[in-house]
């Protein structure tokens, strides 16, 4: 697994009027770092996540979509209705884990959300050993035009 980079005539030479961003993204050999992670398999390139979205806890990297897939097995959470986000903390040099759940508290009440929060925290702790810092209800998960969750906005 590694960083996915592109190079070619159809790939940008840099950001408009932003040499600092260009230097951080494009190396001296003109390879553009897409910010994606992946690996090559017999079927082709497999995307595994975004570099900036990795959650670090105890020196171990966790992919948000792995945590989200795990949570989709919890009763009350539908597919694509949950987002796991790492928020940097200075305590241990890692991240606090925040879980955002698409949930309308007005429809079903606060008690139901609190019960769901307990199930979420328990599922992640028992399965991964990770402690969830906060579970937050949201009306909508921000997504790109292609349907990917915009965790950085959360």
Tell me what you see in this structure:
With 154 residues, the chain is an alpha+beta fold. 25% of the residues lie in helices and 32% in strands. The chain has helices at 19-25, 64-71, 105-108, 110-128, and strands at 2-6, 32-41, 44-50, 55-57, 60-62, 82-88, 95-102, 132-138. The strands form three sheets. Strands 1-2-3 form a three-stranded antiparallel β-sheet, with no helix packed on it. The two termini are 26 Å apart. The mean pLDDT is 86.
Characterize this entry briefly.
The radius of gyration is 18 Å and the shape is elongated. The protein contains 4 helices and 8 strands. The protein is of the alpha+beta class and 154 residues long.
Secondary structure elements and pairings:
Elements: E1 2-6, H1 19-25, E2 32-41, E3 44-50, E4 55-57, E5 60-62, H2 64-71, E6 82-88, E7 95-102, H3 105-108, H4 110-128, E8 132-138
Parallel strand pairs: 7-8
Antiparallel strand pairs: 1-2, 2-3, 4-5, 6-7
Count of runs of 4 or more consecutive helical residues: 4
User: What structural class results from the helix and strand content?
Assistant: alpha+beta
Mean pLDDT: 86
Order of helical and strand elements: EHEEEEHEEHHE
Number of E-state strands: 8
Unreliable segments of 5+ consecutive residues: none
Strand arrangement, major sheet? 1-2-3
Q: Biggest β-sheet, characterized?
A: 3 strands, antiparallel
Strand content: 25-35%
Radius of gyration from the CA trace?
18 Å
Which geometry do the CA atoms define?
elongated
Proportion of residues in helical segments: 10-25%
How many angstroms separate the termini? 26 Å
């Amino acid at each position: 697994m590694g960083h996915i980079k592109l190079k070619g005539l159809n790939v940008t030479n840099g950001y408009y009027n932003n040499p600092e961003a260009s230097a951080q993204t494009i190396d001296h050999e003109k390879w553009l770092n897409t910010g994606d992670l992946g690996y090559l398999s017999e079927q082709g390139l497999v995307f595994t996540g975004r570099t900036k979205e990795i959650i670090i806890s105890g020196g171990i990297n966790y992919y948000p979509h792995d945590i989200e897939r795990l949570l989709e097995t919890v009763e009350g959470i539908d597919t694509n209705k949950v987002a796991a986000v790492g928020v940097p903390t200075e305590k241990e040099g890692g991240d606090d884990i925040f879980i955002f759940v698409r949930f309308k508290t007005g429809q079903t009440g606060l008690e139901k959300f609190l019960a769901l929060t307990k199930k979420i925290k328990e599922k992640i702790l028992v399965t991964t050993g990770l402690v969830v810092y906060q579970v937050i209800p949201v009306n909508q998960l921000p997504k790109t035009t292609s349907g990917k969750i915009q965790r950085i906005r959360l």
